[in-house]
Design goal:
Keywords: Membrane, Transmembrane, Transmembrane helix. This is Tryptophan-rich sensory protein. Residues 469-538 are annotated as: Disordered. By secondary structure, the chain is of the alpha+beta class. It folds into five domains: 2-137, no CATH class; 174-273, Sandwich (Immunoglobulin-like); 279-393, Sandwich (Immunoglobulin-like), CATH 2.60.40; 418-463 and 546-598, no CATH class; 635-710. It has 16 helices and 21 strands. It has helices at residues 2-37, 40-58, 65-75, 95-111, 121-147, 419-432, 438-460, 478-481, 546-567, 571-592, 594-598, 635-648, 655-674, 676-688, 697-710, 727-739; strands at 160-162, 174-183, 193-195, 200-203, 207-215, 218-225, 228-231, 233-235, 238-244, 249-257, 262-265, 268-273, 279-283, 288-291, 298-306, 311-322, 329-335, 347-355, 366-375, 383-385, 389-393. The strands form four sheets. Strands 1, 4, 6, 7, 10, 11 and 12 form a seven-stranded mixed beta sheet that branches. Strands 14, 16, 17, 19, 20 and 21 form a six-stranded mixed beta sheet that branches. Strands 3-2-5-9-8 form a five-stranded antiparallel beta sheet, with no helix packed on it. β6 (218-225) and β7 form a beta hairpin. α12 runs antiparallel to α15 and α14 runs antiparallel to α15 (697-710). The two termini are 77 Å apart.
């Protein structure tokens, strides 16, 4: 029976390992609860809960003998997968089984005591320490939050302290009653609040009333609100003051006693909460919707409107556009939602089915609409609107051009792509080339070539190019077509139907002829040619100056090359020419704008009797001098740093110091509203120096360090500075900074 005892001992050690793991997890949970709450009872509760959860997960009491035997057989070769024989009575075993049982028992007697049961103690220990570290981190953050709150030390009532030392036998007036009434605007629906807490947070426009009563005789009770002084009115034995909350800030109270001693409070906060504009959301609607003329033209509009204090109204603003070009007309309508709008609610679900037929829209018309909502703020409500949505009914009318007898051909397109648009389309075509069939690619490239040609013709009108068509049949010389070229060469039959890019008559617009007179001699040059404005010459019939005309001619030539490569289905070679053409066009536009600056100067008339006399006595030089006063940022705060250094060395506190510290506090108060965590501690330290009990060397040093930490660097005046900077000096300065 020795082997049976060994297996039971191993099973017992395995269960002890599992119980230890559960205990480690429970200790970790208990440490987390205790460190986060600083409560022994919560820590004990955490241990109980953690232990119960771990026991339910591991269930060590359910460890069976079969699991023990399976583990021993798998990890002990000497067992020969026969350790289960040790758990059976010998009377049930055969002779061979008894022999095997004896052999296994002999082998396991020395091995089983050294076999370690399976466990995860390292993981459980790591989990325990991890939970304890989390608890320490939470405890540290709570302490930091308590030591550095977002507002200055926030007592639950107003407390006064003397500015200067007061004799012990002098009666000090005390604040006997404090009442602060916060009356927020009626539209917010918030009831009037009466409190003693001087730190106030309310909606913008709230009327705040302070009522202070004192034990003893006091006078000149004032509120200091970031540098502005407001006197409290004495009424019924107390002092009252009412103000409207418009912006966030800080304030304090001060008064004078019967003996002329002055008393002041700490800083208290006033936070103005802005009334937010309504939030408008439209669900399940595409920003662009298109309809055919013969389908149902309806748009379901599901709108969600929310506001912090209540919604006063919501409606749809729809604009219908009819026509095109200069004949376009707009009609604006205000459409109400279905049902009755419940004013004052903070959330509304609104629905409306927009029927374009009811809006009297025809094919080709466009609808622009958005939802506008306003809250119940008084006197001026906040208004917000959604994005603009579009709905279009496709036009069914198209213009087709046909060639009829006695009618010309209209080859101008409906619109012109600009050169920039052509570049964008060409780049897109190059990008999509691998995914396009060859037929579609060539078709699009050819279409872009046609658009490039259309743009070139459009700019050609400014150069006097009337058309690019061939001459009329009556104007074609039949003589040239009946003869061969010089030296027996054949005449090119396609000469009259192709563009001659290498010739002066590039567009085949003018009948080519030699410059000879009727007598066969060379035609003489007109001596007045350079001094006349010849409207018959398209090169001269332009309003541009010579340089602009040359630039535009260069742009047209480059457009020829861009069109050529587009026609040859090589858009990547056309793109550089398009960029060159765009650059020249932009230069032409910028050159044209210069006339705006030249127009408008009308020089004064010159008296003929003083002209060319050389008299310059009344002419003086213009000399203007102007001085600018540089205002250094945080000037009072920087002076305070210097003065605090003197106070640390032993100087006496004077009334001028109090004024200087108040000015510095007013400078920091403006920043403290935006960044309270950075400036409030320094601001409170400055205000504490007004009290005589706080005027110690340690407080002076602490306030000075705080000021130096928040003050920005002094702005450098513009000027040239000699600076010697090389690699060795820079490394030396870096090392000095590390060892400082």
């Amino acid at each position: 029976m020795m082997g049976d005892k060994r297996l039971n001992d191993f099973k017992r050690r395995w269960q002890q390992m599992q119980y230890t793991e559960c205990a480690l997890y429970a200790v970790g949970v208990a440490g987390l609860f205790y460190l986060a709450s600083q409560s022994f009872y919560l820590g004990f509760l955490g241990f109980v809960v953690g232990m119960a959860v771990a026991l339910l997960l591991f269930k060590p009491w359910k460890l069976s003998a079969e699991q023990t035997v399976a583990y021993v057989d798998a990890h002990v070769p000497e067992a020969g997968y026969s350790s289960g024989l040790l758990m059976l009575p010998q009377s049930e075993l055969s002779n061979l089984s008894k022999l095997q049982r004896y052999r296994v028992e002999t082998q396991l007697d020395a091995v089983l005591t050294k076999l370690k049961p399976p466990h995860q103690l390292p993981m459980a220990a790591m989990a325990m320490f991890g939970l304890i570290m989390i608890g320490l981190a939470i405890q540290f953050m709570l302490k930091e939050f308590q030591q550095n709150p977002k507002t200055p030390s926030t007592p639950q009532n107003i407390q006064f302290a003397p500015l200067d030392s007061v004799e012990t036998n002098t009666a000090i007036p005390k604040l006997s009653s404090t009442k602060i009434i916060i009356n927020q605007p009626d539209y917010t629906g918030i009831a009037i609040i009466s409190t003693e807490n001087p730190n106030i947070s309310a909606v913008t426009g709230t009327v705040i009333s302070w009522q202070l009563e004192f034990d003893g005789e006091v006078s000149n009770v004032q509120m200091d609100r970031m540098g502005e002084l407001f006197s409290l009115t004495k009424r019924n034995g107390g002092f009252i003051l009412s103000q409207t909350l418009e912006a966030s800030g800080f304030y304090s109270f001060s008064f004078e006693g019967a003996n002329g001693n002055k008393f002041v409070t700490d800083l208290y906060s006033m936070e103005a909460i802005e009334d937010q504009a309504p939030l408008v959301e439209i669900d399940g609607l595409d920003q662009y919707s298109y309809f055919e003329y013969n389908e149902v033209k309806q748009l379901p509009l599901n709108t969600k409107v929310s506001d912090d204090f209540g919604i006063n109204g919501a409606y749809i603003v729809a604009t219908v556009s009819k026509g095109s070009g200069e004949s376009v007309k707009f009609r604006e309508e205000t459409i109400r939602f279905d049902g009755t709008l419940s004013k004052g609610k903070k959330q509304l679900q609104l629905k409306k089915l927009l029927d374009l037929d009811k809006l009297k829209m025809d094919p080709g018309d466009e609808l622009y609409f958005y939802v506008e909502a306003l809250d119940n703020k008084i006197p001026s409500p906040n208004i917000s609107r959604s994005e603009t949505y579009f709905a279009v009914i496709r036009d069914t009318i198209t213009d087709d051009f046909a060639v009829e007898s006695t009618l010309g051909v209209d080859q101008m397109p409906d619109y012109f792509r600009s050169q920039r648009q052509l570049i964008i389309d060409t780049e897109k075509l190059i990008k999509d080339k691998p995914n396009l069939p060859e037929k579609d690619f060539k078709f699009k490239s050819n279409e872009l070539g046609f658009d490039q040609k259309s743009l070139r013709l459009k700019y050609g009108q400014f150069m006097g190019d009337e058309t690019e068509l061939q001459a009329a049949p009556g104007q074609v010389s039949s003589v040239e077509s009946e003869h061969e070229g010089e030296e027996g060469e054949e005449k090119d039959l396609l000469d009259a139907y192709s563009h001659k890019h290498d010739s002066d008559n590039e567009h085949n617009l003018v009948e080519e002829h030699e410059g000879h007179n009727e007598e066969g001699g060379e035609e003489e040059e007109d001596p007045l040619h350079d001094y006349l404005h010849n409207h018959d010459d398209p090169e001269e019939s332009t309003l541009f100056e010579k340089s602009l005309k040359a630039k535009l001619r260069d742009a047209l030539s480059i457009m020829w090359d861009a069109e050529l490569y587009l026609r040859l289905y090589q858009p990547e070679k056309s793109l550089p020419y398009q960029y060159k053409a765009l650059k020249i066009i932009q230069e032409i536009k910028n050159s044209a704008r210069i006339y705006v600056h030249r127009i408008g100067f009308d020089p004064p008339p010159i008296k003929e009797e003083k002209r060319l006399t050389g008299n310059i006595e009344t002419i003086t030089n213009f000399d203007k001098k102007q001085e600018f006063d540089h205002q250094m940022s945080f000037a009072s705060s920087r002076k305070t740093v210097s003065r605090l250094e003197q106070l640390i060395q032993g100087s006496n506190f004077t009334e001028m110091d109090r004024v200087l510290f108040q000015d510095a506090g007013n400078e920091l108060a403006k920043k403290a509203v935006e960044e309270p965590l950075k400036y409030l501690k320094v601001l409170q330290g400055l205000r504490d120096l007004d009290k005589s009990v706080n005027r110690t060397r340690e407080n002076y040093t602490q306030v000075q360090k705080g000021l130096l930490s928040v003050l920005p660097q002094v702005e450098n005046n513009p000027g040239k500075m000699e600076q010697y900077d090389d690699e060795i000096n820079r490394l030396f300065i870096n090392e000095l900074g590390k060892n400082d």
